[in-house]
Write a structure and sequence with these properties.
3 helices, alpha+beta, three-stranded antiparallel beta sheet
Length: 181
C-alpha cells in the first residue's frame, strides 16, 4: 500500500506544478537565432502554454509560440545578425507597444501596461527587435503576452557564424483576456 502511495506521489510531483496551476504567467527567457543540429538545422523557440523550449522546425516537437529568426544585415561593411521575432504558427503575431532609451523607462511602461489596447496591428514577423522595447504578442491560441526586451545582442559563434540573442521578461495571460494581472 505504501508503495502505491509513494508511486502516485512521485508521478504527481514529476508531472510538475503546471498540471495543477497551469503555465508560468511570468518569467524570463533567452531566445537565440543560433542554429543547432547536424544534418537538419533548427532553432529553439519558446512555448508559453508549456513554459518550455521546443526545436523548430522539428517534427517531434510541438510548435513554439515564438522564435528569434534573426535578420542578416550589413553594418559598417560587416555582416551581422539582428534579432527578429517570428511565430511558427503563422497566426496573429507581434505588435510594438513602446520603445525607450533605457531599461528603467521601459520597465515603468511594462509594469503599467495592464490591458492590450484596441487597434494594435499584429504581424507574424516583427521588425528588428531592440533593447528596451515592449512588445505584445497574440499567440495562435488567442492568448496575450507582454514582453520586455532587456538585452538584444548580435554575436558570432564558432566558424564565424553570426547569430543574435534577446533576453525577454514576459507576462502571459493564458485565458485570452486582454487584461494582465
Amino acid at each position: 500500500m505504501n508503495r502505491y502511495v509513494l508511486l502516485v506521489a512521485l508521478i504527481f510531483l514529476s508531472a510538475g506544478c503546471k498540471m495543477l496551476f497551469g503555465p508560468d504567467k511570468n518569467g524570463e527567457y533567452r531566445l537565440s537565432s543560433e542554429k543547432s543540429g547536424t544534418e537538419t538545422y533548427f532553432l529553439y523557440g519558446y512555448s508559453y502554454e508549456d513554459s518550455e523550449f521546443y526545436r523548430y522546425p522539428y517534427e517531434q516537437d510541438p510548435l513554439p509560440d515564438i522564435i528569434n529568426e534573426g535578420f542578416r544585415v550589413i553594418q559598417d561593411g560587416e555582416t551581422i545578425e539582428l534579432p527578429g521575432f517570428n511565430t511558427p504558427g503563422r497566426v496573429n503575431g507581434f505588435a510594438l507597444a513602446g520603445e525607450f532609451l533605457n531599461l528603467e523607462d521601459a520597465r515603468d511602461f511594462y509594469d503599467d501596461y495592464d490591458r492590450v489596447e484596441d487597434g494594435l496591428q499584429f504581424a507574424v514577423v516583427s521588425d528588428v527587435v531592440k533593447e528596451f522595447q515592449v512588445w505584445i504578442q497574440q499567440t495562435s491560441a488567442g492568448n496575450y503576452v507582454k514582453m520586455l526586451v532587456k538585452e538584444a545582442e548580435s554575436l558570432e559563434g564558432d566558424a564565424n557564424n553570426k547569430y543574435s540573442e534577446v533576453l525577454i521578461e514576459y507576462t502571459y495571460q493564458p485565458n485570452g483576456s486582454r487584461d494582465f494581472p
